[in-house]
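During the no-cost extension, the postdoctoral fellow (Dr. R.K.) reprocessed legacy sequence entries with the updated structure-token encoder. One reprocessed record is reproduced below for audit purposes.
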Amino acid sequence: MRLNSLILKMFVGICRLELHLMEGTSLKEKRQVIKSITERLKNRFNISIAEVGCQDALRRAEIGLALVSNETVYLEKVMGRVVNFIENDGRVQIIKIDKEIY
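Re-encoded structure tokens follow.
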């Protein structure tokens, strides 16, 4: 089979979340909370995720995540589950969500 005759579809979902930390008296505590959340999300949803902004702010954080699939419905579903997971973590509150699928 020739490669030109194959139609391959790949979609990328990206999401940026701005978070408010409910408690925290130091940047070290903040980083522990963010690391805990991002590691749990990586393990549970098999996504790429990192703190991408507000590293020096005491009570704010920005995390970015990305995932790839051949179905946009799957990407929406996983991103929704990630948001729900974070909303259920009492240590942080979501301030802003930016999601896109390409």
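Residues 17-101 form a domain with the Alpha-Beta Plaits fold (CATH 3.30.70.1120). The mean pLDDT is 93. The remaining legacy entries will be reprocessed before the final report is submitted.
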